[in-house]
Known about the structure:
Layout: E1 2-7, H1 17-23, H2 28-39, H3 45-54, H4 61-68, H5 77-86, E2 89-98, H6 99-109, E3 113-122, E4 125-132, H7 139-151, E5 158-162, H8 168-171, E6 176-180, H9 184-187, E7 192-194
Parallel strand pairs: 1-2, 1-5, 2-3, 5-6, 6-7
Antiparallel strand pairs: 3-4
Helix pairs in contact: 1-2, 2-3, 4-6
Amino acid sequence: MKLCVFDFDSTLMDGETIDYLAEDLGLKKRVSEITKRAMAGEIDFFESLVERVSLLKGLKKERVDEICHNLPYMNGAKESIKELKQRGYKVVVFSGGFRNATDYAMEKLGFDASFSNILHEKDGVLTGLVGGDMMFGFSKGDMLVRLQTLLGISKDDTLVVGDGANDISMFKHAKTKVAFCANKILKKSASVVIDEKDLTKILEIL
Length: 206
């Protein structure tokens, strides 16, 4: 068995989930600027996440789910996951984004499991609070080591794919590290760089 871990936003999905949610409140530009700085490693991921989610306060959960169920997936996402599974990989998603998006994507794209964050809601409305598995800059690396231990999979049999600064921590624990249409800071830690929005390119390096 081998393990492949994908980031979700701007990797399996073409864009940032939180930017799509913020657009509904007329706050896309403001949230997008914070997102860009976080993915470039200019600001702390946890602080940026808390700040961005606070701006979503008042958005109805029903609307959140509607948006998350209509996100554009990256070219080649479904095909790549299918092929990786046929080659004996367990395919998992680590996302600093939200379960509303990743749980639905799991049904559509066919990966095996996901670890992401939860938007707190009360009476069907977002409170502006967030919690979950991927809150910190180190979360992906921490979870990857746990998963490797649980599944008995080595660093040499691990493939990771991401685009932002919060993916650096998981790059440290994988032999094959793919920076996909990524920020400069992540490319420095990568063993493979793909600048074309086509996830099937990953299959060519295996």
